[in-house]
Amino acid sequence: MKPSVTIIDYGAGNILSITKAFEHCGAKVNIADFSQMIKKAERLILPGVGAFEDGMLGLKKRGFIEPIKSFVDKGKPVMGICLGMQMLLEISEEFGTHKGLGFIPGKAVSLPKKDKNGESIKTPSIGWYKVYNINYKEAWENTILEGVSVESHFYFAHSFYAAPSKDEYRLANYNFNSHTITAVVRARLLYGCQFHPEKSGEAGLTVIRNFLNI
Amino acid sequence: MSNVRLIARLDIKGPNLVKGVQMEGLRVVGDIQKFAGQYYKDGIDEIIYIDVVASLYGRNSLTEIVKRTSQDVFIPIAVGGGIRTVEDVRTLLRAGADKVAINTASVKRPDLIRDVSRCFGSQCTVLSIQAKNCGECKWEVYTDNGREHTGVDVLEWAIRGVELGAGEILLTSVDREGTKKGFDIDLVNTVSNAVQVPVIACGGMGNMEHLLKVVQDGNADAVAMASVLHYSILNIKEINSFALKNNIDVRAL
Question: Can you give the pTM of this predicted structure?
Answer without folding.
Answer: 0.96
